[in-house]
Structures are given as structure tokens and as C-alpha cells.
Write a structure and sequence with these properties.
19 helices; 34% helix; FAD/NAD(P)-binding domain; seven-stranded mixed β-sheet; alpha/beta; globular
Length: 561
């Protein structure tokens, strides 16, 4: 067994947040070791050739970018291009496949006409617009706080009031989101379009009293203050690749195929690399794994085998609630709706069987232990906005990728024993849901690989857990938390102020399990690095100087632009 105590910080897990933390700390002159279990960095934010022999690199687990701050891109010198989608969403009427709601960011008049086409009452488009305008006032007020020390609830509410968003605060923060949607909007389909953003990866109902749906909704709208979701050009792997480049060029040591086996008090980490056992120690250990996974690693490193609870946060135990399906098509399918082109329909988020009533019925079915029928689904067509993920030959042939996110498929439906059967059942449910709004069967459009197999892959919550270590398949590493703390919460230490603290002062959360973590944002990594830099070196020995050694930007209480 080898031992190395020469590091200022050890980062457990090489997902995009860990890479961001490594880049920040290394640029500040800290000596960093990052350990990644897989044979490549990036975690779930990667591009992959999902189908053998087919030159298409899909964003396999995470698809779009909204929460990655421009500040992080600028600080780390990331060469990332994000492409804006013209269309927000397309939602066929499940009762009349020939009509649908198309929300066109570039044509308000066409969007208003689309509301009328699906039978929305007079004034519904205006109410919809006003609802989101209020939400935006709130998100613009809160967005700058995401990369600053945590505000308290009272401080965050004051920011909202100062931005004229007091009413939106009440609607999004203080009462169940379902109440606000039902009060503002009347049409079943329109209400459903709004509600979907509260349910991505979250098993909840519109009126749940714990407000987990509200928190999910806020995170889906807060990115950049505008809530725009952009396509990363080159695929999600381009984002992680740039973070890796920044970290390596700054001097971070990144080891892949390095499985951490224990995290011990005193900043000691044990790991297995190339068949050999190693230990390393540092002043700081940053955990870019889910808190539940970190607890297992801490238990392995505890002398008595006790199981610590990293933050005592019950949200960390929440299950994932989705199925993910990737497809490669010969071309886009024809729609039942003759008034919209497939390019427009698939140019944004394509909602299927996601009306207000369908979403609630699907929740109740899943809660009763069955796969919902119809299964609510959302589709993203990355290749329409960014054809570079396809080979020139596939581009010339008109091929397109589809990524489907099936809602209300909680992990409780999946076991090790039934996983294969459930995967097949869920794939069939997804295809059935898609076909309900198409003018031709999606199966007939699937490309085949050299082996003759159709280009479709389906990932259950258990598959996701096994592949990228997300407990119970939860894409947020557990339930989300408000991006503020309750009044009176302890904020004495930098780790507490940045929302990355555990019960061990040398051990910080730097991934999606940190407060304000979740999605491809690098916010967890940024905030953990800021906590370390604000704390100063534990060892008063010499340190290299670096551009960020003086500490974080935006360290005041008020949000800054």
C-alpha cells in the first residue's frame, strides 16, 4: 500500500462538479488530487457512442444546460458554446392529435393562436405570459445568489420584494405550486405544460405539502435568471471536457479508474488504482458523490464501522422517478398535427401525455405500484440544434437523435430481480406514448447498427445507479433543497455559508448533494472551492500564489450581477 500526504485537497468523484472544484482550487495554487472510479471523467455529464459501430455521440444521461453560470465559464476559461432553441415546447392535445400547443419564443402571435387552437379560454395566453413574467422577476433576483454565500429565507425574500416579485415568492416558495397554477390558469393542457418543470426527476404531486415540486420548479426556471435551457454544442461531453482541460492545465492531478474505498477522519482517503491499494491525505476532502454514497465510504473508514449521516438531510434519501430512452432515427417522424413541421415540434421540448390531469393520474398509478399508461414523456432532439454530434454521413442521410425522459417512474417500481423485465416494459410504454401523437410508428424509423440491432437504449433508475452512482437513480443525488437556509441556521463557517458543510469540518460536499447542487451547473464545485479558499490553508506552510488565491467573488450577502 502506498501513501501520499502531499495534497491540499482530494476530490472524490470526477463528475463535472468535481472537475470545476479541481480547476478553481488548482488555479488558486492549491495542490489537488481528483479520483474518479470510471475510466473517464465527467460522471453523468458525458457524451457516448451509445450504439456500437454507429458514429453518433449522445449526451447519454444529461442533455441540456441552464444552470451553468457565465461566471464559472469566464473564471475557468471554458471554451463552451451553448445554442439557444427557438421553440420552448410543443404539446399535442391527447384528445385530438391533430391540434397542439406550440410555444414559439420568436413569435408571440403564433403562440397566442396556438393557445386558441387547443381550445384554451380567452385570456389564457395572457395569464400564462403573466405567470411566467412573475416567475422571472423572482428568478432574476435569486440567480446571483447561487454563486454567493447562502442567504437566509428572510434575506432571499427581501431580494424578491426589492425586485417586485413578492407575489411570485408567495406562489413559488410559500404554498404548493399546484395552488398557484390552478389559480392562474384554467386549461388542462396549459396547466400541464407548466407543471412538468416541477416534476422532472421528482416523484411528487402538484399539491404536495412538502413543496419538493416547488423546489424542482424553481431550479428549472432560475438558470441565468431566465430559465432558458440550451444545447451544448458538441454534446454534454464538451462541457465536462472543457472543465477537465481547465483543471489539468491548472495543475490538478486527475486519476481515472481510481475507486475510492474509504474516507476517514483527518482528510485521509483510501483508493484502489491499477490493482494496488493507496492512501492519500489532505487538508480538505471534497465529495463529488451523492451524500448517501459518501456515508458508505465514511462507514468503510470508521474504526467501529458506524454509519455516519453526512448532513442529516432526509432529502438525500429521495428516490429517482424517471426512465431515460435514447433513440437514433433515420429522420424525424411525421406528426398527426398537420399545422406544425416536425422540425418545429422537435425543436424545443416535446411534451407527450402531460396534461394536468394525466400527470396526476400517472402519479397515482405509480404510487399504486404500476407503470402509468399513458406514460408522460418529454423529448429532446439534440441533433436538430447541434448536428455535430452525428457523423457527416448520418447528417447527410437526415438522421436525428431523440432523447426521451419518462416521468413518474419511481425507483420503488424497480428491483434487481425485475430490472430486465421492467426495462422492457418501460421501453414499450415510452414507444406507445410516442406513437399516440405520431402519424407513423416510431419503431419503423429506428436506425440499425452493423449488428442489425435497432438503435435504442433504455435506462431504468437502477441502470443509472449502477452506471454513474446516483442512489436510487436520483438525477439530483437526492431531493433538492431551497437555495437559501432558514432563519437562524448556523452560518459560522465558510462551509456552512457556502452550503457545502458536513459534520466533519475537513469534509465538504461539492456535487449535486450540496445545497444549490443539481443539474449540470458546476455550482456545487464552485461553492465548495470558494469555501476552501475563504477558509485559508489549514497548514500555514508555503503555498503557490494563484489568480483566485485572494478568495471568492460575490462574497457579500446581497446578490450581485
Amino acid at each position: 500500500m502506498s501513501s501520499n500526504n502531499a495534497f491540499d485537497a482530494i476530490i472524490v468523484g470526477g463528475g463535472h462538479n468535481g472537475l470545476a472544484a479541481a480547476a478553481y482550487l488548482s488555479k488558486a495554487g492549491r495542490k489537488v488530487l481528483l479520483l474518479e472510479k470510471l475510466d473517464h471523467p465527467g460522471g453523468a455529464a458525458v457524451s457516448a457512442q451509445a450504439f456500437d459501430g454507429v458514429e453518433a455521440r449522445l449526451s447519454r444521461y444529461s442533455y441540456l444546460v441552464s444552470l451553468l453560470p457565465q461566471q464559472v465559464i469566464d473564471d475557468l476559461g471554458l471554451r463552451i458554446r451553448l445554442a439557444r432553441r427557438r421553440y420552448s415546447s410543443y404539446t399535442p392535445d391527447p384528445h385530438d392529435g391533430g391540434s397542439a400547443l406550440l410555444i414559439d419564443n420568436g413569435d408571440a402571435a403564433a403562440t397566442a393562436a396556438s393557445f386558441a387552437a387547443v381550445g384554451a379560454p380567452a385570456g389564457e395566453f395572457r395569464a400564462f405570459t403573466e405567470f411566467y413574467a412573475g416567475c422571472r422577476r423572482l428568478t432574476e433576483a435569486l440567480w446571483p445568489t447561487m454563486t454567493a454565500p447562502l442567504p437566509t429565507r428572510s434575506e432571499a425574500r427581501a431580494f424578491a420584494a426589492g425586485a417586485g416579485a413578492a407575489e411570485a415568492w408567495d406562489a413559488m416558495i410559500e404554498r404548493p405550486l399546484g395552488d398557484s397554477i390552478a389559480r392562474s390558469l384554467q386549461h388542462d393542457l396549459v396547466r400541464g405544460v407548466v407543471l412538468t418543470d416541477a416534476l422532472i426527476g421528482t416523484f411528487a404531486r402538484a399539491g404536495d405539502a412538502d413543496l419538493q415540486q416547488n423546489i424542482c420548479f424553481l431550479y428549472h426556471l432560475v438558470g441565468g435568471g431566465t430559465g432558458d435551457w440550451d444545447v451544448p454544442v458538441g454534446g454534454m461531453g464538451a462541457v465536462s471536457g472543457e472543465l477537465e482541460r481547465s483543471a489539468r492545465e491548472a495543475g490538478a492531478t486527475i486519476l481515472t479508474s481510481a475507486e475510492v474505498t474509504a474516507v476517514r477522519p483527518g482528510g485521509v482517503v483510501s483508493y484502489r488504482h491499477h490493482g494496488a491499494e493507496h492512501t492519500a491525505a489532505a487538508s480538505w476532502v471534497l465529495a463529488n458523490v451523492a451524500p448517501v454514497v459518501l456515508d458508505r465510504l465514511r462507514s468503510s473508514g470508521a474504526p467501529d464501522g458506524t454509519a455516519p449521516h453526512t448532513t442529516h438531510n432526509p432529502n438525500h434519501l429521495r428516490e429517482g422517478a424517471q426512465v431515460k430512452v435514447n433513440l437514433l432515427l433515420k429522420r424525424l417522424p411525421r406528426l398527426l398535427d398537420p399545422n406544425v413541421s416536425p422540425e418545429a415540434a422537435f425543436g424545443g421540448t416535446f411534451h407527450i401525455n402531460e396534461t394536468w390531469s394525466q400527470l396526476d393520474a400517472a402519479y397515482l398509478a405509480a404510487a399504486a405500484g404500476t407503470v402509468p399508461d399513458p406514460l408522460p414523456c418529454e423529448i429532446y432532439c439534440h441533433s436538430l440544434t447541434d448536428p455535430s454530434i452525428l457523423s457527416p454521413e448520418l447528417q447527410a442521410a437526415g438522421a436525428q437523435t431523440l432523447t426521451v425522459f419518462g416521468l413518474h417512474v419511481p425507483d420503488r417500481l424497480i428491483t434487481a430481480e425485475n430490472n430486465d423485465r421492467r426495462r422492457a416494459e418501460l421501453q414499450a410504454a415510452v414507444l406507445k406514448s410516442l406513437n399516440s401523437v405520431l402519424a407513423e410508428p416510431i419503431e419503423e424509423l429506428l436506425l440499425s447498427g452493423p449488428d442489425g440491432q435497432p438503435c435504442i437504449e433504455t435506462k431504468t433508475t437502477l441502470d443509472i445507479e449502477r452506471a454513474v452512482g446516483m442512489p436510487r437513480g436520483n438525477i439530483f443525488h437526492g431531493g433538492l433543497d431551497w437555495p437559501f437556509v432558514e432563519d437562524g441556521a448556523p452560518l459560522e463557517t465558510p462551509a456552512q455559508r457556502w452550503g457545502v458543510a458536513t459534520d466533519d469540518p475537513q469534509l465538504l460536499l461539492c456535487g449535486s448533494g450540496a445545497r444549490r447542487g443539481g443539474a449540470v451547473s458546476a455550482i456545487g464545485g464552485h461553492n465548495a472551492a470558494m469555501a476552501v479558499l475563504e477558509s485559508g490553508p489549514r497548514d500555514p506552510g508555503p503555498r503557490k500564489s494563484g489568480p483566485l488565491e485572494s478568495g471568492p467573488r460575490n462574497s457579500g450577502r446581497a446578490p450581485q450581477g
